[in-house]
Design brief:
about 20% strand, Rossmann fold, about 220 residues, about 50% helix, 8 helices, binds guanosine-5'-monophosphate
Length: about 220
């Protein structure tokens, strides 16, 4: 079955919120805090072929699948977008949009610039709020990658060089924030999303009023 055929024309009822940043810039903590503080947002849980880390839970952090399974799903157009990072596949499934529509929530994507580009290409600009999060400095980024203790030194160097490349794409995003303090950064993000919430609310009220004025 070609899943995409059924999913491609889905109306996006709320906003698609994209947060991208290089590994180690604090994105995971930031997304967790944001989800805790804003009840009208749900996380788009991605599929990945990378190995599960010790602290991760299947179905909560990612859906962990084999490379073969991932490729199979991709062939069936299961994903809105996919990307290959550090020799592993990552993808955002269409079904997350359906869920967020059903729950009247914005959908939060913790994805890289390649995925963000694909989402911008496929969906209306009016529906997207995209953020790029930068670390305060390169040395701070390296420090954070080491402090996480998740990766070996080969992986840390790979992630650092990948991060330097990733950061070059900051100017494709509407909002660029430097994450000096995660609480401050989350509050800044919330203020921006609240601004869009108020626009959406006003537009709904306005469209009701317009209908009444014009058609009643
Ligand atoms: P990690 O392996 O550290 O969890 O993620 C590595 C990178 O892949 C991060 O930049 C993360 O945002 C990105 N990523 C995670 N899920 C997806 C996805 O579904 N699509 C894309 N394009 N990137 C993703």
């Amino acid at each position: 079955m070609n899943i995409k055929k059924n999913y491609m024309n889905i109306e996006i009822k709320n906003r698609l919120i994209i947060i991208s940043s290089p590994s180690g810039a604090g994105k995971t903590t930031l997304c967790k805090l944001l989800l805790k503080k804003m009840k009208n947002i749900s996380l788009s849980i991605s599929y990945t072929s990378r190995n599960k880390r010790l602290n991760e839970i299947n179905g909560k952090d990612y859906f962990f699948v084999t490379k073969e399974k991932f490729i199979n799903l991709e062939k069936k157009n299961f994903f809105i977008e996919t990307a290959k990072n550090f020799n592993n596949f990552y993808g955002s499934p269409y079904k997350n949009i359906i869920m967020s529509n059903k729950n009247h929530q914005h959908l939060l994507f913790d994805i890289d610039w390649k995925g963000a580009r694909k989402i911008r290409k496929n969906y209306s600009k009016d529906k997207i709020i995209d953020f790029f999060i930068l670390p305060p400095s390169k040395s701070e980024l390296k420090k954070r990658l080491i402090k996480r203790g998740r990766d070996n030194s080969r992986e840390i160097n790979l992630r650092l060089s990948y991060a330097m490349n990733e950061m070059k794409h900051y100017n494709e995003y509407k909002y660029v924030l430097i994450n000096e303090n995660v609480h401050q950064t989350v509050n800044d993000i919330i203020k921006i999303i609240d601004y869009y919430n108020s626009i959406d609310k006003n537009n709904k009220i306005l469209s009701k009023k317009l209908k009444r004025i014009i058609y009643s």
